[in-house]
Structure formats: C-alpha cells, structure tokens
Design a protein that fits this description.
Layout lengths: L5 H47 L4 E7 L2 E6 L5 E7 L2 E6 H55 L2
Antiparallel strand pairs: 1-2, 3-4
C-alpha cells in the first residue's frame, strides 16, 4: 500500500471500533451465561443436599451476609422458573433433571458465544494489521512529500 486512502483508514477504524463493541457485548453475555450456569449448578447441589439432610434444616440467605436456620416443610417439591417469570412446581428429582438440562444448554450457548468472540477477535486483529499498514503508508507518503 504505497498511497494510503484516508477514506479507507477511516473505514477500517470504524470497523475496528464496531468489532470492539461487539466483542465487549458478547463478553458481557458470556459472563451472564456463566453466572446462570453457576446458579443452576448450585441449585442442583442444594437440592441434593436437602434430600440427604434428614432433619430438613437448612440455612436461608436473607442478604447482607445474614442467614436464617429454617426447616424445609416439603423437600419433595420445588418451584422452578421456566422462563418469562413463570414458575412451575416439580418433584425434586424432576427439578434436578430440568436444571441439569438447563446447565447443558447454557454450556452449549457459552461455547457458541465464545466461538463468536474468538472469530471477532481474529477479524479485529486482521483489521488492526491492515490499519497499521495504512498508517505506515500514510507516514511514508508524508515523508516522501516532505523531502521533495
């Protein structure tokens, strides 16, 4: 690239900024997916622990690092959020299975989003190289004109 076109430099910079924004959004989405996966895994672990706990007493977090010691009245049934703020009652074993399926789905989505981030990062790297070459060409052109 001997003569750098200012419009091409501007276009490349615009693409680079857009890719950066997309990467940031997808990274935030990955974080939310990971949080949901961890919460579902914790719920599965808790349900299993409640089933094994013979006295039915558990610690209930109430916020601010405070807990109440409470007795679970019906450890055999759980309310599970199935989306859109809709919850249904399920047997504990069914709830564990449902949450396990949700974890599997979240892992698949997480993998897909991570692949998209990787692809965008590769494209952003390529644009950065092209942009760097365009800037070098512009500097060389200026140096050549300054020496004339």
């Amino acid at each position: 690239m001997n003569q750098a076109d200012p419009r091409e430099i501007q276009t490349l910079q615009m693409y680079l900024n857009e890719y950066g924004q997309q990467i940031e959004l997808l990274t935030q989405q990955l974080s939310m997916i990971e949080q949901q996966r961890l919460e579902a895994a914790a719920a599965v672990e808790t349900l299993r622990a409640v089933q094994e706990n013979e006295d039915g007493i558990v610690l209930l977090p109430i916020g601010g690092g405070a807990y109440l010691r409470v007795k679970v009245l019906d450890a055999g049934h759980v309310l599970v959020n199935i989306g859109a703020d809709v919850s249904v009652e399920r047997a504990s074993a069914d709830a564990v299975e449902y949450l396990g399926d949700r974890i599997t789905e979240l892992e698949a989505v997480e993998k897909k989003v991570a692949g998209s981030v990787e692809q965008l990062q590769g494209q952003a790297t390529e644009i950065s190289r092209r942009l760097e070459a365009a800037y070098r060409g512009a500097r060389q052109a200026q140096a050549g004109q300054g020496g004339s």
